[in-house]
Amino acid sequence: RNYGIAGEELTIYEYDMDSDPAELDVYCRQADFVFNLAGVNRPQDASEFMKGNFGFTSTLLDTLKKHGNTSPVMISSSTQAALDNPYGESKRAGEQLLFEYSRETGAKVLVYRFPNVFGKWCRPNYNSAVATFCNNIAHDLPIRVNDPSVVMHLVYIDDVVDELISALGGREHRNGDYCEVPVVHTIT
Asked: Which residues form the NAD-dependent epimerase/dehydratase domain (predicted)?
C-alpha cells in the first residue's frame, strides 16, 4: 500500500501469519524501515508465546541478514517483558534477539515496551482494561478491579502512532536501550 506521510510517499509492506513466506523475503530485501508489531498474547498453549514473540522475530532478522539489509528495526514489546511468566519471557527473548542483531550487524533497533494501550480499535475482554471498563459500563455489567492499589500506566493509541511516525523519521524518544512513547497517563 502507498501512503503519503509528511509529504513523503511511502510504500508499506504488510505481512502477517497468513501471508506467503516468500513475501517476507521480498519485503526484507526492499524495506527501508521495519515495524515488527507481531505478537501472540492469547494462545491456546503457552509454547505459542515463544513461537510468535521470539520465533517470528528470529525469522525476520535472519531474512534481513540474508539480504544484507541493515535498515532500522522496531519491535513492539510490553512492560510485561519484565515479568517471569511465559508471555513476559517470550517478549524479553525477542528484545534480546534484537539487541544481539544490532551488535552483530550495526543496524539501529528500536525496542518499545508499551504499557497498557487504550483508544479506538481496542477490544474489550481481550487486552485493554480501559476498553473492558468502557464496554461494561455501557452495558450495565459489573467492573472488577483485582487490586485497587495497582498503578496503571496507559498510552493512547494516537500517541503511539505519533511516536512511531517520529521513529520512522529518526526522532524516536529513548530512555537507555529502550524507546518510549513520551505521553503516558497514570491512574490507580
From this structure: 10-168
3-state secondary structure of 158: helix
Q: Could you say which DSSP state residue 53 is in? A: I
Is the CB of residue 112 less than 8 Å from the CB of residue 74? yes
On whether both 119 and 75 belong to a single domain, the answer is: no
Give the pLDDT band (50/70/90) at residue 6.
low
Prediction pTM value: 0.86
- Residues with a catalytic annotation lie at 87
- Residue 166 is part of which domain span? 115-188
Q: pLDDT value at position 158? A: 94
Q: Which residue has the cell 519491535?
A: 75
Q: Are 111 and 95 in contact (CB under 8 A)?
A: yes
What string of H, E and C letters represents the secondary structure of 16-35? CCCCCHHHHHHHHHHCCCEE
- Do 40 and 106 lie in one domain? The reply is yes
Same domain, 48 and 95: yes
